[in-house]
Amino acid sequence: MKKFVAVLSAVCILFSSMSVICAVADDGYSHEWDHELKTECAGECGQNPVIIVPGIMQAQTYVQTPDGNDIITEEGFPILEGMDMAFMFDTQKIERELKDAVPDILKAIFKRDRDGLFDILIAIFDDGFKDHYFNPDGTRVNPAATDEYWYSLEECRNTPDKSYNYAKGYSTDENGNPLPTTKYENQYDFIKRQVDISAFCEQYGYDHAYYYAYSSFGNILDTAADLNEYIDMVKCQTGHDKVNIVFISLGGTIANVYLADYIDPDEIDRIVFAACALDGSYVLSDLMSGKTTFDNGMVLYNDLIPNIVSLVDEEYMTLAYLGNTIARAIPQDFFSDFLQEALVRALNEVLGRCVRNCQSMWALVPSEEYPELSELYISDSEHEALKAMTDRYYEIQLASRDRIRELDSRGVDMFCISGYNLELPAAFEHYDESSDNIIQATSSSAGAVFAPVNGTLPSDYTPAIDESYISPERMVDAGACALPDKTFFVKNQSHLTLQSSVNDVIGLCLSIFTDKTLTDARENSAGYAQFNEYRNLKTIENLLRQYGEADLDSVKASRREELDAAAENANQVLAKREWSAQEAKEAEQRLYTAMEKAKLLSGSSDSSFLKYKLSPLMLKIAVAISDFFRFVFRGNDYYLFTIKLI
Question: How far apart are CA 606 and CA 375, in angstroms?
Answer without folding.
Answer: 55
